[in-house]
Structures are given as C-alpha cells and as structure tokens.
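Lab channel / #folding
Pinned by the channel admin:
"Please post every new chain as: sequence first, then the structure tokens as a reply. Keep commentary short and put observations after the output so the thread stays searchable."

First post following the new format, from NK:
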Amino acid sequence: MRLNGAGDRHTDRATDLIVRRDDLGVVGGDAYKLHDSLKRDGHHAHESTHTAATALTTRNFACGAELARVRDKWDSQLRTLRDACAQISNHLDYSMAAHAKDDEHIGGELLAVSRINAYLK
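Reply from TO:
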C-alpha cells in the first residue's frame, strides 16, 4: 500500500492509495495451478493401489490392509493440500479486491478533506 504520491504511472487512474502486490498475484496463481495439478494428477495410482490392497487382503497378507490405509491417508492428505491451495488462491484474490475497494473508499474520504482544506485557505 502506498500512502504518499499522486497516482500510479502504470495505470490511467489518478489515485492516492494503491495496492500493488504483484508477488501476491504470482503466489495466488501458483496456488491455483498446484490445486489443478493435484486434482488432475494426485489420484493416478489410486485404482492400482486399491486393486493391489484388495488382492493382498484376499490372499491373507496383512500388508493388504496396511496398503489400503496408506491409500486412504494419501487421499486425506491430498484433499487437505488441495483445499489449502484453493484457500490460499481465493484468499489472495479476495484480499487484493478488498484492499483495492478500501483504497478507493479512503481516497474518496481524503478527497473530501482536501476540498474542505481548499475552502479554509
């Protein structure tokens, strides 16, 4: 956030308060891409692991049940990681929009004060 200055040379808007956090946009974008990658690729071994766990359990191998538990734990951890990535991406998008709206509101408040100051001079 920048409190001093008169506008941003990178935009057409002449504002006093600007939220420019390109790094947050990059992080949010990366979190979104990771979420999509995990959704697409995170389950590629699910079916084969399930088949192997079932076959081992059917043949009375104790490791079959353990393999099934590992698969279930993987699924749980994958959901948690995907949810976290989505939350990060959504939160950063929301934060940028909220800060921009706050800056616009505060800019309007300051403009009103500067008009009052002009009358007092």
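NK: Helices lie at 22-41, 46-58, 62-120.
TO: also worth noting, Residues 62-120 form the longest helix (59 residues).
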